[in-house]
Write a structure and sequence with these properties.
This protein is an all-alpha fold. It is 72% helix and 0% strand.
């Protein structure tokens, strides 16, 4: 229990100490008009209050990631706490804050557009591919996972396919509505359910008879029943709740509704800390209520949704446990909606299709939903595996974009570069070792080969950045993003 409570305290201190340092590093321009004000279109660019932006950001980035990921990460044992706490403070929080703020300074641009500006045209196409793949997988995962939870929560038999279709209908209706109507009106209620249910699980766990494992010299080892290696496995299993590239597709959407840059630390960094606390609670619950083998068997028998159902009802009883499950259900439903909305925006920006009529919105939205519905027929565990890989590759790309931003502006770029290099190495080793890549297994070839490839990629990236900085005009807009937005026409602004 000491490690669990201490981890949550560290997360909160991380917000006030390291989060404040990251905020000072970026230097918010608190008197600068934001895209929500200057580029208002009453669809995606709409000013909203800080508390609502924060709730939307939390629900956008959460999904089932900070629940399912930590539950599966609990198989590794208490060592999972380390990645959740320090990953959230020094990687995830920085990742979310920097990408959100850079987007805020660039007219609410999405990650592919930012990659094109700061790294180059080739990077824009590459990032666009990964972002679209990731969002399609996320949207699909966040259709199937809440559908499974809803099916288990209903007291009578229900058809899974009917539930999936109903979720798609909700997504379709919400996608075409202005963000303040589709998300702004509903998410505060979803947020209240989430927060109350999470607190209920956490508090009940602390005062229950279950023993919450501590991190000690004896428990600082790999307890995974299948013997899966901690590196890189755990860093892909626990993504949301520590660091997730999906967040880089969500922060820009909220950057289009913020009215003052001083909101950034609370909205972007702070909500990542909130997600870390959610992850700590579910990882601790999974480790406390089940031994590793039992937990593994439950996940294999269904998905982590089986564990969610069991934990909620064991700690809170059938009635309140079902209410807590509703809190888990709203996470993927809200994130799934946000994923599809972000995917529409990214495709529209990439193809230069202005989203000013229902026909143009549906022309992008409907094909995406058809593809996603087909993907719901694929085994969930396979989808999750590919989602994890695409997710962390996107996180690396986002960190490289923000590193280049800080480097060009002569600010402390190490705060994003160090976690970026670490996760790049993890991604390369993953590709070397896993069956979805080269399938070489975790051995000398994968670790040393991964190190060499990572070094080459970092060297090329660094050389390009130095050349780019030397060739920039000192008065280039790229170096002076704090200047006012000069037009209220979104097309001209880009």
């Amino acid at each position: 229990m000491v490690t669990f409570i201490g981890g949550i305290v560290l997360l909160i201190l991380g917000y006030f100490i390291y989060g404040a340092y990251i905020d000072r590093t970026f230097e918010p321009a608190t008197d600068r008009e934001t895209p929500a004000e200057v580029l208002r279109d009453n669809l995606d660019f709409i000013p909203m209050p800080r508390w609502k932006n924060a709730i939307i950001e939390l629900l956008n980035i959460a999904g089932t990631g900070p629940i399912f990921g930590p539950i599966m990460g609990a198989l590794y044992g208490p060592v999972a706490y380390i990645w959740i706490v320090f990953g959230c403070i020094f990687a995830g929080g920085v990742h979310d804050y920097m990408l959100g703020m850079v987007s805020l300074r660039n007219n609410g641009d999405q990650l592919p557009s930012l990659a094109g500006k700061y790294i180059g045209k080739v990077a824009r196409h590459l990032v666009n591919l990964f972002a679209c793949l990731l969002l399609l997988l996320v949207g699909t995962v966040f259709v199937t996972s809440p559908a499974n939870l809803i099916q288990q929560a209903l007291p009578f038999g229900s058809n899974l396919q009917v539930i999936i279709v109903l979720i798609f209908i909700y997504y379709l209706v919400s996608t075409v509505l202005p963000i303040d109507k589709a998300i702004g009106k509903v998410y505060p209620w979803f947020g209240a359910i989430l927060i109350l249910s999470t607190i209920a699980i956490g508090v009940t766990l602390i005062f229950s008879d279950f023993t919450i494992p501590n991190l000690t010299p004896a428990t600082m080892q790999n307890f995974h029943p299948k013997g899966l290696a901690i590196f890189p496995g755990m860093f892909f299993t626990i993504s949301c709740g520590a660091m997730s590239g999906f967040h880089a597709t969500q922060a820009p959407m909220v950057s289009r509704t913020i009215t003052n840059e001083r909101e950034g630390r609370f909205t972007f960094y702070g909500m990542m800390i909130g997600e870390g606390i959610i992850a700590m609670i579910w990882a601790a619950a999974a480790m406390s209520l089940f031994d590793g083998q039992t937990l593994s068997d439950m996940i294999d028998a269904g998905t982590a949704s089986v564990v969610v159902d069991a934990v909620s009802k064991m700690l809170l009883g059938n009635v309140f446990g079902t209410i807590a499950i509703l809190g888990v259900i709203v996470l993927p439903i809200s994130s799934g909606l946000s994923a599809f909305r972000s995917l529409r925006i990214i495709i529209a920006d990439y193809l230069n299709i202005k989203q000013d009529t229902l026909a143009k919105i549906m022309a992008i939205t409907l094909p995406v939903y058809v593809i996603s519905f087909i993907l719901t027929k694929v085994d969930f565990n396979i989808l999750w595996r590919y989602f994890n890989w695409a997710n962390q590759v996107t996180a690396v790309l986002a960190l490289l974009v923000t590193t280049r931003y800080l480097f060009l502006k002569s600010k402390n770029y190490w705060v994003t570069f160090i976690p970026g290099i670490f996760m790049l190495y993890a991604c390369v080793v993953y590709i070397f070792s896993e069956p979805i890549g080269l399938g070489l297994g975790l051995g000398v070839i994968s670790y040393i080969g991964g190190l060499i490839v990572t070094g080459i990629l970092v060297a090329v990236y660094w050389y390009q950045g130095v050349h780019q900085k030397e060739s920039l005009d000192p008065q280039a807009k790229l170096l002076h993003d704090e200047w006012p937005i000069l037009t209220r026409d979104p097309d001209l602004a880009k």
